[in-house]
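Notes from hallway chat w/ T.B., transcribed later so I don't forget. T.B. wanted the structure written out for a chain they're using in a teaching module, and asked if we could keep both sequence and structure tokens in one place. Agreed to drop them here.
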Amino acid sequence: MNAIFEFCREKSSLILRLSLGVILLWIGALKFADPTPVVGLLKASFPFLATNGVVYALGTVEVAAALLLFANRGVRFVGTLLVGLFAGTLTIFVIAPAVSYGAAGFPYLSLAGEFLLKDLVLVAASVALVGMETARMAQTSNPMMPMGRREMTSRETMLSAR
């Protein structure tokens, strides 16, 4: 069992980064195949953004982010961008509740609401990816620092200098 735990510890960041890349590549590419569903969703929530051009721009950002994740470049920045993108999608629950909950209303979800709710996990995955990459970079720059060590407060720093 410990071998499984160790594998998960060692590979979790890679698996998370690549799986987010696959998801982004797929949903980004689909925006070029047919922007109509996303334009319809935008019409119901952010009508000023409901154009093919905006959908193509979103698709371009998503595909570019996927490629950066695959290349392991700018992961913290891509992860932060993804938090914004996925959180933006979740605002539809507040802005256009009829889209998210349908005729039955809260707490029932429409098919679109089910589709949108998955972005809650994608936000969490993006936050975790940023955290993992930040920890990895800190460990790389200071290999003597144990993983997960917290930074000392300025008061603790002053006290330890005495």
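Follow-up for T.B.: The helical segments are 2-33, 36-45, 52-71, 75-90, 92-95, 97-101, 111-141, 154-161. Might be a good example for the class.
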